[in-house]
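note to self — DONT lose this again. spent like an hour looking for the file last time. sequence + predicted structure for the chain T wanted, 226 res
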Amino acid sequence: MRVAIAGAGAVGRSIAGELLENGHEILLIDKAPTAISVERVPQAEWLLADACEITSLDEAALQRCNVVIAATGDDKVNLVVSLLAKTEYGVPRVVARVNNPKNEWLFNESWGVDVAVSTPRLMSALVEEAVSVGDLVRLLRFSHGDANLVELTLPPESALAGTTVGDVAWPEDTSLVTIIRGTRVLTPSREDSLEAGDELLFVAAQAREEQLEDLLSVRRDTSTTP
Protein backbone atom coordinates (compact mmCIF):
# COMPACT_ATOMS: atom_id res chain seq x y z
CA MET A 1 0.00 0.00 0.00
CA ARG A 2 1.33 3.44 -0.92
CA VAL A 3 0.89 6.10 1.79
CA ALA A 4 1.74 9.80 1.55
CA ILE A 5 2.28 11.68 4.81
CA ALA A 6 2.12 15.48 4.80
CA GLY A 7 4.24 16.70 7.67
CA ALA A 8 7.63 15.18 8.43
CA GLY A 9 7.84 16.26 12.04
CA ALA A 10 7.99 13.89 14.99
CA VAL A 11 4.40 12.70 14.42
CA GLY A 12 4.80 12.14 10.69
CA ARG A 13 8.11 10.32 11.07
CA SER A 14 6.70 8.12 13.82
CA ILE A 15 3.73 7.13 11.65
CA ALA A 16 6.07 6.47 8.74
CA GLY A 17 8.27 4.19 10.82
CA GLU A 18 5.31 2.12 11.99
CA LEU A 19 3.90 1.74 8.49
CA LEU A 20 7.28 0.86 6.99
CA GLU A 21 7.64 -1.95 9.52
CA ASN A 22 4.32 -3.29 8.24
CA GLY A 23 5.62 -3.38 4.68
CA HIS A 24 3.99 -0.26 3.24
CA GLU A 25 5.50 2.21 0.75
CA ILE A 26 5.85 5.65 2.36
CA LEU A 27 6.33 9.15 0.99
CA LEU A 28 7.04 11.97 3.48
CA ILE A 29 6.29 15.54 2.33
CA ASP A 30 7.37 18.73 4.08
CA LYS A 31 8.08 22.26 2.92
CA ALA A 32 10.64 23.01 5.64
CA PRO A 33 14.20 22.05 4.66
CA THR A 34 15.03 21.46 8.33
CA ALA A 35 12.32 18.77 8.47
CA ILE A 36 13.88 16.71 5.69
CA SER A 37 15.86 14.20 7.74
CA VAL A 38 16.35 11.28 5.40
CA GLU A 39 18.70 9.57 7.84
CA ARG A 40 15.89 9.28 10.42
CA VAL A 41 13.60 7.31 8.10
CA PRO A 42 15.90 6.13 5.31
CA GLN A 43 13.47 3.57 3.89
CA ALA A 44 10.91 6.27 3.03
CA GLU A 45 10.75 8.53 0.00
CA TRP A 46 11.18 12.21 0.82
CA LEU A 47 9.83 15.27 -0.97
CA LEU A 48 10.70 18.88 -0.12
CA ALA A 49 7.49 20.62 -1.19
CA ASP A 50 4.39 22.46 0.00
CA ALA A 51 1.62 19.85 0.32
CA CYS A 52 -0.98 22.59 -0.15
CA GLU A 53 0.18 23.21 -3.72
CA ILE A 54 -1.27 21.24 -6.63
CA THR A 55 2.10 21.20 -8.40
CA SER A 56 3.69 19.60 -5.35
CA LEU A 57 1.01 16.94 -5.14
CA ASP A 58 1.38 16.26 -8.85
CA GLU A 59 5.08 15.69 -8.24
CA ALA A 60 4.18 13.35 -5.38
CA ALA A 61 1.87 11.39 -7.74
CA LEU A 62 -0.87 11.51 -5.13
CA GLN A 63 -3.26 9.73 -7.48
CA ARG A 64 -1.18 6.58 -6.94
CA CYS A 65 -1.66 6.68 -3.17
CA ASN A 66 -4.07 4.42 -1.33
CA VAL A 67 -3.94 6.60 1.79
CA VAL A 68 -3.00 10.20 2.54
CA ILE A 69 -2.25 11.27 6.11
CA ALA A 70 -2.33 14.99 6.90
CA ALA A 71 -0.10 15.07 9.97
CA THR A 72 1.21 18.61 10.21
CA GLY A 73 0.93 20.77 13.31
CA ASP A 74 -1.34 23.23 11.49
CA ASP A 75 -5.04 22.39 11.25
CA LYS A 76 -5.54 24.70 8.26
CA VAL A 77 -2.85 22.87 6.32
CA ASN A 78 -4.28 19.48 7.25
CA LEU A 79 -7.72 20.49 6.01
CA VAL A 80 -6.40 21.80 2.69
CA VAL A 81 -4.28 18.68 2.13
CA SER A 82 -7.28 16.47 2.92
CA LEU A 83 -9.59 18.33 0.56
CA LEU A 84 -7.09 18.27 -2.31
CA ALA A 85 -6.29 14.59 -1.79
CA LYS A 86 -9.94 13.61 -1.94
CA THR A 87 -11.34 15.96 -4.57
CA GLU A 88 -8.41 16.42 -6.94
CA TYR A 89 -6.74 13.01 -6.73
CA GLY A 90 -9.51 10.67 -5.58
CA VAL A 91 -7.46 9.17 -2.75
CA PRO A 92 -9.62 6.38 -1.23
CA ARG A 93 -8.65 7.00 2.41
CA VAL A 94 -7.73 10.32 4.00
CA VAL A 95 -6.70 10.55 7.65
CA ALA A 96 -6.17 13.95 9.27
CA ARG A 97 -4.58 15.06 12.51
CA VAL A 98 -6.56 17.53 14.62
CA ASN A 99 -4.29 19.73 16.72
CA ASN A 100 -6.91 21.99 18.31
CA PRO A 101 -10.05 20.21 19.58
CA LYS A 102 -12.06 23.36 18.84
CA ASN A 103 -11.49 22.69 15.14
CA GLU A 104 -12.64 19.08 15.28
CA TRP A 105 -16.08 19.89 13.82
CA LEU A 106 -14.41 20.92 10.55
CA PHE A 107 -12.71 17.57 9.98
CA ASN A 108 -15.46 15.77 8.12
CA GLU A 109 -16.30 14.53 4.64
CA SER A 110 -16.97 18.10 3.47
CA TRP A 111 -13.22 18.63 3.77
CA GLY A 112 -12.35 15.20 2.40
CA VAL A 113 -11.55 13.67 5.78
CA ASP A 114 -12.45 10.01 6.30
CA VAL A 115 -10.93 9.68 9.78
CA ALA A 116 -10.01 12.55 12.11
CA VAL A 117 -7.57 11.86 14.94
CA SER A 118 -7.51 14.42 17.73
CA THR A 119 -4.43 13.84 19.87
CA PRO A 120 -5.66 15.96 22.83
CA ARG A 121 -9.06 14.25 22.76
CA LEU A 122 -7.49 10.81 22.43
CA MET A 123 -5.20 11.42 25.41
CA SER A 124 -8.06 12.67 27.57
CA ALA A 125 -10.19 9.72 26.46
CA LEU A 126 -7.47 7.27 27.46
CA VAL A 127 -7.29 8.90 30.89
CA GLU A 128 -11.06 8.69 31.25
CA GLU A 129 -11.06 5.08 30.06
CA ALA A 130 -8.49 4.17 32.70
CA VAL A 131 -10.49 5.58 35.61
CA SER A 132 -14.13 5.37 34.50
CA VAL A 133 -16.48 2.44 34.98
CA GLY A 134 -19.99 2.78 33.62
CA ASP A 135 -19.28 5.96 31.66
CA LEU A 136 -19.18 6.05 27.89
CA VAL A 137 -15.81 7.25 26.59
CA ARG A 138 -15.44 8.48 23.01
CA LEU A 139 -12.15 7.24 21.57
CA LEU A 140 -12.32 8.13 17.88
CA ARG A 141 -14.63 9.97 15.51
CA PHE A 142 -15.37 8.70 12.00
CA SER A 143 -16.42 11.38 9.55
CA HIS A 144 -18.70 9.21 7.41
CA GLY A 145 -22.08 8.55 8.95
CA ASP A 146 -21.34 10.70 12.02
CA ALA A 147 -20.18 7.60 13.90
CA ASN A 148 -17.75 7.24 16.80
CA LEU A 149 -15.67 4.49 18.34
CA VAL A 150 -16.77 4.43 21.98
CA GLU A 151 -15.85 2.35 25.01
CA LEU A 152 -17.62 1.46 28.23
CA THR A 153 -16.50 -0.75 31.09
CA LEU A 154 -19.54 -2.73 32.24
CA PRO A 155 -20.18 -1.98 35.93
CA PRO A 156 -21.30 -4.70 38.37
CA GLU A 157 -24.67 -2.98 38.85
CA SER A 158 -25.48 -3.06 35.13
CA ALA A 159 -28.69 -4.86 34.20
CA LEU A 160 -26.81 -6.53 31.33
CA ALA A 161 -24.18 -8.25 33.49
CA GLY A 162 -24.80 -11.98 33.08
CA THR A 163 -26.84 -11.72 29.88
CA THR A 164 -25.75 -12.82 26.40
CA VAL A 165 -25.02 -10.51 23.49
CA GLY A 166 -27.89 -11.92 21.46
CA ASP A 167 -30.43 -11.24 24.22
CA VAL A 168 -29.75 -7.50 24.29
CA ALA A 169 -31.95 -5.11 22.32
CA TRP A 170 -29.12 -2.86 21.18
CA PRO A 171 -30.02 0.65 19.96
CA GLU A 172 -30.20 1.24 16.23
CA ASP A 173 -27.02 2.43 14.52
CA THR A 174 -24.75 0.74 17.07
CA SER A 175 -22.47 -2.26 16.69
CA LEU A 176 -20.57 -4.12 19.40
CA VAL A 177 -17.20 -4.84 17.79
CA THR A 178 -14.99 -6.11 20.63
CA ILE A 179 -15.16 -7.39 24.19
CA ILE A 180 -11.94 -7.01 26.18
CA ARG A 181 -11.95 -9.33 29.17
CA GLY A 182 -8.74 -9.24 31.16
CA THR A 183 -5.98 -10.06 28.69
CA ARG A 184 -8.37 -11.58 26.14
CA VAL A 185 -9.83 -9.82 23.09
CA LEU A 186 -13.11 -11.42 22.05
CA THR A 187 -14.98 -11.06 18.79
CA PRO A 188 -18.55 -11.06 20.10
CA SER A 189 -21.10 -13.63 18.98
CA ARG A 190 -24.75 -13.91 20.01
CA GLU A 191 -23.87 -16.63 22.51
CA ASP A 192 -21.15 -14.70 24.35
CA SER A 193 -22.02 -13.53 27.82
CA LEU A 194 -21.46 -10.03 29.17
CA GLU A 195 -19.61 -9.88 32.47
CA ALA A 196 -19.01 -7.09 34.95
CA GLY A 197 -15.65 -5.49 34.22
CA ASP A 198 -15.79 -6.22 30.48
CA GLU A 199 -14.51 -3.39 28.29
CA LEU A 200 -17.00 -3.07 25.43
CA LEU A 201 -16.04 -1.26 22.22
CA PHE A 202 -18.79 -0.03 19.92
CA VAL A 203 -19.09 1.84 16.68
CA ALA A 204 -22.13 3.99 17.29
CA ALA A 205 -23.93 6.97 15.83
CA GLN A 206 -23.42 9.99 18.03
CA ALA A 207 -27.17 10.40 18.45
CA ARG A 208 -27.33 6.92 20.03
CA GLU A 209 -24.53 7.35 22.56
CA GLU A 210 -26.72 8.49 25.46
CA GLN A 211 -29.19 5.67 24.83
CA LEU A 212 -26.34 3.15 24.72
CA GLU A 213 -24.85 4.45 27.97
CA ASP A 214 -28.21 4.23 29.72
CA LEU A 215 -28.70 0.67 28.51
CA LEU A 216 -25.30 -0.51 29.73
CA SER A 217 -24.92 1.41 32.96
CA VAL A 218 -28.24 1.28 34.76
CA ARG A 219 -29.66 -1.69 36.62
CA ARG A 220 -33.38 -1.60 36.11
CA ASP A 221 -35.52 -1.83 39.23
CA THR A 222 -37.70 -4.92 38.69
CA SER A 223 -39.27 -4.83 42.16
CA THR A 224 -43.00 -4.21 42.43
CA THR A 225 -44.75 -1.93 44.85
CA PRO A 226 -47.43 -3.69 46.94
